Amino acid sequence: MANVIVIVLCLIFSILPAAIANPRTELVYKFCGVEQADNVSEFNQNYANAIVAMEPEIKSNKFSIYGEGLAPNRIFVLAQCMDDLSKEDCQICFSAIKTQLPGCFPHISGRVFFDGCFMRFENYSFFYESSSPHDVKRCSDAVNLKNDQFRDVATKVVKDVVTMAPVHGGYAEGRRKTYGLSVYGMAICWNTLDEKACSDCLSNASTAVLDCLPSIEARSLSVGCYFRYSEFESSNGSNFFNSKGAIFMYLVFILVAVGVCIIAILVGYIVGTTLHEKRVKHQTKHNGDSSDLESSVMKRSLHFKYSTLEKSTDNFSEERKIGQGGFGEVFKKDPKKKKELDWKKRLKIVEGTAEGLEYLHNDCQVRIIHRDIKPSNILLDSKYRPKIADFGLARVNIREKGSAPLVIAGTFGYMAPEYLAQGQLTDKVDVYSFGVLILEIVSGREFNKIPANDTLDTIVTIAWKHFKEKRAYRIIDPIMEIEDVNEVVRVVQIALLCTQESPIMRPDMSTIIKLLTQENLEVPVPSKPPFIDDSFYGSEQHGSIHQHHPSASSVDSCRYYDTHQDNGSFHHYRHHPSASIDSCYDTESVLG
Hints:
38% of the residues lie in helices and 14% in strands.
């Protein structure tokens, strides 16, 4: 019992810091320049290289600057977290913000403000700039009804913080409570500015935010500093254990958890003892009936006669075989190809698989990289809920050794290029495979079984070419009845983010889940996938996965279409407790 209590307490102490953490990844402001790079591909690669080089310093110092490449495609990048963020929260904020800036490409400048961190890139060294014509302020629509009193308190807080920050390493926060009002202020200068430049930047910022009064919240977003005042404190600086109320709630939580554990152990002990006594009492009586019991269980578990299975699969014909699992070959039975997987169900499968991968990558005690994400390894229950299966190739505890060479294993077509070529194994290998899986689910096609003029084309290259021509809807499975084509195209764009050639450009699974479930988030523009020639972008000679598609040249011009075909591309077995998503693919008929 003592061991169980210790385990529960360890779980509580491991869960609470995660609950207290707040990386503040809300997007506050994003700006992209006008001028474009001479060589977009080289500029993008320089950005990716810079991000890789900056990550160790961000991890240790919560700040980094870096220059990469040669003019005119040289890039300079600055990233910094707010001082009150922990190193762990800073890494989360940086992981999220670095995927936002590529949305500015092919432009040669951009900056993004999150509530917890800042990032900027240019094609020149800007590190010591303290102001810019593009500096902005943000005022909330809500105002404090005690106008004069609130204005007086807020002005004092702003002046206090502006005075303290330059002489305290470029960061300060403060609070005033009076007249029954409470106002919080926070100011930070980027680490490249000296004391005078920081003071000048914050002076301009304070003037800007004071113009927002009596708004209850305002921000100044400058190239050299960040300033905010608000009725509500957003800082992570206050330690969780500094509050007596928080300590009390924490202790109550522990005591309740321990009490529940003790009760559960007592109930379990009583029930277990009772069952054990009954089992011992009747052991002799039922000893001779074990063979009959096994026979009964086997009969209840078998839903079909062997002759029925043999007939329904054409005597287990190779043409009916759809895959090879750990327990043997898998055959498909339904020859009518009923249209059971509509878009809502497919999206549910995509989101469920993403949540499963995010759990493997981040929520397990050790990080698990599956290495073989593909349709045949995604099992569906009777409610179309996906489960990731077949962990025979999985690797664990790959956190700091992502570049260590490993024996290559997986399925061709789903393996990321850096893993296939160099054996570099990170969680971005699973992200790449997941992107291919999304495209297969959207199109109803296996990655290499598509009609195309170029025999080297795959579902990834075809999807990319159509996306570049703003015709991504052409890969959508025509058997689906779509109410909102833009929603499906958004998912296709997320898939292309996952299949980008550079692993650093691919989002992690946490970001992917946010993009899939939060429609208000902007999906960054993906860079090209591997194994594709830029010269194809303008070509009309590449294949289309399906010929049934809207005639308009833009997704925005079509909201609904329906092909009403009799033969579907997906199948599902309601009687099989773990049917593979691979069994839903039509690998024989050619739609269109």
